[in-house]
Amino acid sequence: MPTWWVKKCGTKTKDDNHHQNKTRGVINTRGIITGDNKTSVDPPTTPSRSTPRCSREFAGGSSSAFSGFDSDSIEKKCHPLPRPSVSSFPNDHVTGSTSGSASVSSVSSSGSGDDHGQLGGFSRGNCDVKFNVVAVPRSPERVSPKAVARPTSPLHNRLSGVSLDSSSTGSSECHRLPLPPTSPTSPSAVSVHGSRIGGGGGSETSSLGFSKWKKGKFLGAGTFGQVYQGFNSEKGKMCAIKEVRVISDDKTSKECLKQLNQEINVLSKLCHPNIVQYHGSELSEETLSVYLEYVSGGSIYKLLHEYGPFTEPVIQNYTRQILAGLAYLHGRNTVHRDIKGANILVDPNGEIKLADFGMAKHVTAYSTMLSFKGSPYWMAPEVIMNNNDGYTLAVDVWSLGCTILEMATAKPPWSQFEGVAALFKIGNSKDTPEIPDHLSNDAKNFIRLCLQRSPALRPTAFQLLEHPFIRVHATRVANTKDASPRSFDGSCTQPLREPYRGRSSHENYLTQPLAVSSRVIKNPSRENMRAITSLPVSPCSSPLRQLGPAYKSCYLSPPHPSYSFPGQDSGYNPVEFAVSPFRVKKDAMIEPSSFRLQPPNSPMRSRLV
Ligand SMILES: Nc1ncnc2c1ncn2[C@@H]1O[C@H](COP(=O)(O)OP(=O)(O)OP(=O)(O)O)[C@@H](O)[C@H]1O
Predict the structure, then answer these.
(1) Which residues bind ATP (predicted)?
(2) Whose CA is nearest to atom 22 of ligand 1?
(3) 38 marked ligand binding residue
């Protein structure tokens, strides 16, 4: 074990943990909601939410302002829906549009507009394929091929009044267009924008220009939209279609669009075997749809819910892959901000796919995030105690530690605490979550490293790839002659695919992280953290420090899972977060009961008001 692991570990004994546990109070569970089990529910036919279920941010005012998509950072730049751009594709890319339709580019995850260019050289099958958000005509008779050549096009009239300014993006590159679904519920999706989708299968647009992608069964509802299976009846390929209804004068819709747009902006630049692949997006008169790689196994949360805690080899295997995805993401100075079991998908071969990038954010060397985003139980202390200090990529490392505990126990850490009590415990105590005794020393050490309260002390995702807990497993996989997946026990799953051009081996991929442009991000030090503290004041600070007006319009992330087991009072109350307003009042720190339960069908999961 490298010495720095030991140094960083801040070795804790079992007794320490035991002592910490004794100091905790336990607040009972008040209810359970379904998480991924939402899939069994019929999808809503309308957005129906009068308020966002959860925007997962505390940034003031952002929930209602579609202009200025992201109010969370000091960058203060928008995350616009892409604006129309000239369509200059060859024949196989665009076959029709209307006077009211537009091909619009999706660029810039954060408005910072820097280093994404480095993605250009990477490819994973279909990764060189880019798509646009496409405004689709409402009815077929309005299709006019001439419209395709327009240099600009008005945005969808449903989005009038909504700032979709993308001037900050500075991109005018043309993207290939996605295949829109033809759906019984989406009669407008008749304009065809041919492109490859789902792994470089070439154009899947019929000669008539009609999409072969059909919206299929409802997979589940997230905070900001519904997810359906998509099927191409010609190719037999599947995708996941994430959909948000477009209602221009509806705050919920705006918030959902903002969030989905954020996801498009980030995902469209990523290409990695452990990150759900973005295929394209499409704006119709009624919906904004995002086409994603379909991952049929469901989320880690769902697996935990159905099968119980994972064994250590599985945890090792999954953690290695999550880390690989995170290292790639962080190498692009992008932070996920909502790492948790519910946002990590597993394919039938046990391959991990990070998903749900609605919270993801690009950070630069000169900026950091100051808003309050994420899911409470997986949230890093510095996020909760966001007292103008800001935070960086290390928040994902903390959340990874929480996710490992989640995999080991089928509960998130701190689940014995409710609402503000949990936030307080994470943000304002010196405790660390209990680490199950049955885990190996390597696993415990790894978790402790991730859960160091000081973000500066947390290893980076790159460094963690070298940890014995990961290395042992990675070596075992690399040495496996028959690399095909044989079992689901974590010991013999498919090795990571070659993700980048020019990289020759899995080992190489694991051990040679991409260049990180920011010193702050690559190896956050105290010095860097000090630099961060000099940044402008956050519009929204910690809910534990200042329970004032700044929290109006701020939202907490839904802690998706309903971890509760027979005879077990976890204290983790998903209802609080999943369906009820999460009200933080001045007395909330003292009186957790100020979190009020809402009717189960309440549209909003959690919200600070
Ligand atoms: N690419 C995908 N392939 C298969 N299923 C998916 C895919 N993306 C999402 N899902 C499923 O769709 C459902 C909704 O996912 P979504 O990411 O919108 O929200 P979530 O992560 O469940 O919740 P939240 O947005 O509140 O974090 C989940 O059950 C998820 O497992």
Answers:
(1) 242
(2) 222
(3) no
- Ligand 1: residues with CB < 6 A are 36, 39, 219-225, 227, 240, 242, 276, 292-295, 298-299, 342-343, 345, 355-356, 558, 560
Give 162-172 pLDDT, tens digit per residue: 333 333 333 33
Q: Which atom of ligand 1 is nearest to the CA of 605?
A: 26
**pLDDT class for 453, splitting at 50, 70, 90?**
confident
Distance 295 CA to ligand 1 centre (A): 10
Output b/e per residue, 92-110; b: 16+ Cβ within 10 A. ebbbbbbebbbbbbbbbbb
Could you say which DSSP state residue 186 is in? B
CA of 342 to the centre of ligand 1 (A): 8
pLDDT by residue (tens digit) across 153-211? Answer: 223 334 333 333 333 333 333 334 344 333 333 323 322 233 333 333 333 333 333 36
| Ligand 1 pocket test target in 36, 340, 356 with most atoms within 8 Å of CB | 356
**Residue 473 — pLDDT band, cuts 50, 70, 90?**
low
Any catalytic annotation for residue 338?
yes
CATH 1.10.510.10 matches 298-473: yes
Task: For residue range 94-120, list pLDDT tens digits in order.
Answer: 223 333 333 323 333 333 333 333 333
Candidates 3.30.200.20, 3.90.1560.10, 1.10.10.10, 3.30.390.30; correct CATH number of 213-293?
Answer: 3.30.200.20
Six-digit token string for 70? 């992201």
Catalytic residue among 36, 72, 338, 347: 338
Q: How confident is the model at residue 419 (pLDDT cuts 50, 70, 90)?
A: confident
What is the position in ligand 1's atom list of the atom closest to the CA of 226? Answer: 18
The mean pLDDT of the chain is 57
pTM for this predicted structure: 0.55
Tell me if 213-293 shares its fold with 298-473: no
The CA 384 to ligand 1 mean position distance, Å, reads 25
HEC profile of 139-160: CHHHECHHHHHCCCCCCCHHHC
DSSP letters, 194-216, are ----SSS------TT----EEEE
Domain boundaries, the chain: 213-293, 298-473
At CA 39, angle to CA 576 and CA 608, rounded to 5? 25
Cα 283 to averaged position of ligand 1 atoms, centre (Å):
20
